[in-house]
Amino acid sequence: MPKFPIRGQLLALAVFSLGTVAGAQVGKSVTISDANIASEAELRAIPGLTDALVKEIVAKRPFASITELDAILAPLSKEQRTEVYKKTFVHINLNTATKEEILLIPGVGPRMLHEFEEYRPYNHLAKFHREIDKYVDDAELARLEQYVFVPINLNTASDADILTIPGLGNRMLREFKEYRPYPSIDKFRREIGKYVNAKEVARFERFVAIQ
User: Fold this and answer.
1) Which H, E and C letters describe the chain, residue by residue?
2) N or C: the chain end with fewer CB closer than 10 Å?
3) Residue 204: pLDDT above 90?
4) How far apart (Å, rounded) are the C-alpha atoms in residues 176 and 183?
């Protein structure tokens, strides 16, 4: 099946190789920042985001979904919000994201929405890479991947997979692994809550699962 033509300003992106995806569960940032951890300066630099909106975004983080952020940006037009989402976004869970959430990804329309949903469930981001690569070129694939994630299995995830969680470094990687096995998400909340506040635990929790 022929691939869709690329849309957007990503003609200069480097090829996004399969090797890059092999150790990833959260898409690698190429052109956007994670709205849950972007600095105020980064947010203020995005056209359309007023000081008032930036303050509200920072105050209400972390967002559990992109639709929560979209609600805050309701004063902006749909076109303005799309421009914002070319710069910052809240990653969507490939296995549970609603149609509404998927369609907030700039450039995704009904046809690509169908492809996102067709290959569920995703056990790894590499499956998304493999399947969606049938329809778009490498630059567009890299652009799309940065908006999505597949939850990481807390009990078996590799170091490389865990480190794809935005804002998670080597120290927190050690804490994630120290308390294995996790019989429930409650243990994760309790143990990781020793090191970061409740908001940060909630942000991390979006990216993990007990399997």
Assistant:
1) CCCCCCCCCCCCCCCCCHHHHCCCCECCCCCCEECCCCCHHHHHCCCCCCHHHHHHHHHHCCCCCHHHHHHHCCCCCHHHHHHHHCCEECCEECCCCCHHHHCCCCCCCHHHHHHHHHCCCCCCHHHHHHHHCCCCCHHHHHHHHCCEECCEECCCCCHHHHCCCCCCCHHHHHHHHHCCCCCCHHHHHHHHCCCCCHHHHHHHHCCEECC
2) N
3) yes
4) 13
The full set of domain ranges for the chain reads 16-150, 152-209
Predicted pLDDT at 139:
96
Cis peptide before 2 (omega within 30 of 0): no
Tally the residues of the chain: 211
Q: What is the pLDDT of residue 168?
A: 95
User: Can the peptide bond before residue 181 be classed as cis, meaning omega within 30 degrees of 0?
Assistant: yes
Confidence check: pLDDT of 140 > 50:
yes
Q: How high is the pLDDT of residue 24?
A: 82
Q: Which of 62, 129, 111, 53 has its CA nearest to residue 84? A: 53
Tell me the pTM: 0.88
